[in-house]
Every structure is written in structure tokens, then in C-alpha cells.
Amino acid sequence: MRVESERDAWQSGSPARRLVFEGLTRIGSTGKAVPSLAAGWKSEDGDRRWQFQLRPGVHFHDGSALTAGAVVASLGHSCSANCPWTTVRAAGAQVVFTSEIPMPDLAMLLAEESFLVQHASANGGTDGTGPFKTDGFANGVLSLSANLDYWDSRPFVDRIELHCRRP
Predict the structure, then answer these.
(1) In the predicted model, is pLDDT for residue 10 greater than 90?
(2) pTM confidence score
(3) Lowest CB count within 10 Å: 9, 73, 98, 152, which one?
(4) Given this model, what pLDDT does residue 159 score?
(5) Is 53 exposed, middle or buried (0-12, 13-18, 19+ CB in 10 A)?
(6) Which residues pair with 89 in a beta bridge?
């Protein structure tokens, strides 16, 4: 499949970001937050404390397991200042957010592109857990291939070529 985009390959809003990376939640067809990398969540203390239980068996494209520590590291990198939460920490297979003020929309917020989970790969790149893996980038073309081990079933399309900066 060939896709053309006016954006850079990894620019905010690029189709590649949602194909390679995922968040703890995503927006479902009803417009509400639904599970993605988190299998479920609950809030306590008047929405000041949230616990997100990670989906078991999810791996990054390099084969390393998705852990709560990896999620915390990714969120710390993407939200180093002005985070809506006071702290985020790993607790076993859970990611725990706390705040001094209520965060009633945290599950919706975590579905935003800025909070997609990323992991530094051994080859110096960035891996995700999404339905497609990055194969390469040359001459303005980002090549993606189906993630055969994707937790939510194998993608229908085998390959995607994203031609960037096309009017």
C-alpha cells in the first residue's frame, strides 16, 4: 500500500505515528477512551490516583517486553514538564498516576498522540508496539511492514510505503 503525506514521516499528525506507536488508551468508535496497551484502569481518591493495568504479552518491535517501567520512561520523556499528573510510577504490571488535583479525563488524555509509548531500540532508533514496524527511510519514503506478532491480530496489509512531503 502506498500513502502520500504532506507531513514529515514522524511529524505530529503523520499516519506513521499511529501505525508504529500506541498509547495506554485509544479513542473508540463512541468517542470514549478504550483499552489499548492498558487492559483496563481504575481511578481512586476523587480521580487523583489512577492505576492502568498493562495488557500481558505485548512486546516492542525489537522483541523486548512492554513493562510498566518502559511506559513510565516513555511518558517521562514525552512529558518532562507541565504534565497533567504530579507523579507517574511503575508498580508491577501497573502504571500509577497521582495528582494533587482531580484528573477525570486522564484515560482520554493518554490516548493523545503526545503520549504514545516509545522505546529506544538497540540499533539507535525508536521502537513501538503497533501493528507496523519501521523497515527503513530513504529518499523521502518511510517503509513499514506488518508486525506479525501484534497483540491485536496481524494487520491485513503486508507493507506500507509512506511518501513524505508530497503536496
Answers:
(1) no
(2) 0.91
(3) 152
(4) 95
(5) middle
(6) 96
